[in-house]
Amino acid sequence: MKSPTALVTGVTGQDGSYLAELLLDKGYEVHGMVRRSSTETFERIAHLKDRIQLHLGDLLDQASLVTLLRDVQPTELYNLAAQSFVPTSWVQPSLTGEFTALGVTRMLDAVRLVDPEIRFYQASSSEMFGRVQEKPQSETTPFYPRSPYAVAKLYGHWITVNYRESYGLFAVSGILFNHESPRRGREFVTRKISESVARIKLGLQDELSLGNLDARRDWGYAPEYVDAMWRMLQLADPTDFVIGTGVQHSVEDFVNAAFATVELDPQDFMRVDKSLIRPAEVDTLQANVEKAERELGWRAATQFTDLVEIMVHADLEAQERSSRRRVGGPGTR
Ligand code: NAP
Ligand code: G4F
What we know:
α6 crosses α10 (304-324). This protein is 40% helix and 15% strand. By secondary structure, it is an alpha/beta fold. The strands form four sheets. The protein has a seven-stranded parallel β-sheet with strand order 3-2-1-4-5-6-11, with helices on both faces. The chain folds into two domains: 5-180 and 219-243, Rossmann fold; 189-217 and 248-285 and 303-328, UDP-galactose 4-epimerase, domain 1 (Alpha-Beta Complex). It is globular, with a radius of gyration of 20 Å. Bound molecules: NADP nicotinamide-adenine-dinucleotide phosphate and ligand G4F. The site of NADP nicotinamide-adenine-dinucleotide phosphate has 25 residues, from α1 and β5.
């Protein structure tokens, strides 16, 4: 029998790389959509390159999506591609809308036209809760987006629900709270902190500049979250889920835990940079994961302090590796 076939958009990103690993482990034939760029962005999937098949495609280009689905004939489609960095969405609001909002419609239309039996996962976000209307946030909490990114994600969420209801597609929206790992993009706050703390420990950097230290997030470990995505597509009927740990911490908590990992005092290195404060902030996010625990049998396993340690240790190793390639190598504070 032919193995199940999955297509992952955003396969070069944090989640795409972990999802590709998970699907390979489960015996899937795995295909990834990548967009053309003058330099390759395949660092996170370099170790998988002989086991997955990559295809050119872009969320901005409807024809490329239709052709891709015709060529790959997936049974499952995970739509993870997006402009995913919130601050950039104020600088490029229209482009963010094209990728992160209309890109979802283009993908759903491709499914509808090529093969409506394809099971479709949409990467929705807890940012949609924005100025939270209820604590903690569940699948029934009203939305109040606070950035062009969150507004675009909300469109992507509702168009997924709408195509499910209009055309009977097996289309689900996973409303995921922040999830992090050593593969997290360097501009997101957790990775910015873990990498800076590692560099400070090794004497390669003097200070860490951050914006709002009071923001609170529900941070989990990314490899566990891609398992929740897969579980959603195995259900008998399509339905949406909130995925998170149910526990929240502040940015300052993350800073303190990261410096504690390397036995340094944050007060000696921390600086607040007001230019990093956002035009409109999401102050607090915390997931209500009852539905996921009940219907998916999914629960976050990695605790906050373990996540911080995983990230700081990975960045220490990465910095030490690259320093060894430089003459002299690093010192240690
Ligand atoms: P990420 O690391 O930023 O990866 C984004 C991916 O999207 C990259 O592979 C990128 O390709 C691709 N992409 C961007 N624009 C594209 C376009 N026009 N056409 C094709 N591909 C495009 O994001 P992530 O953290 O893995 O998150 C995955 C998804 O989940 C995103 O949709 C994000 O918004 C959403 N989400 C993330 C979190 C989280 O905490 N991580 C929480 C909730 C929702 P390049 O390599 O070419 O740039
Ligand atoms: O790490 P962040 O940039 O993540 P944010 O904005 O919560 O968005 C991430 O999670 C969403 C899920 O809720 C995803 F949908 C989205 O794609 C992305 O993955 O910022 C977290 C918090 C913010 O409140 C921000 O103001 O950290 C605060 N912060 C303080 N100083 C900073 C900084 N954020 C960044 N990126 N850089 C700073 O220097």
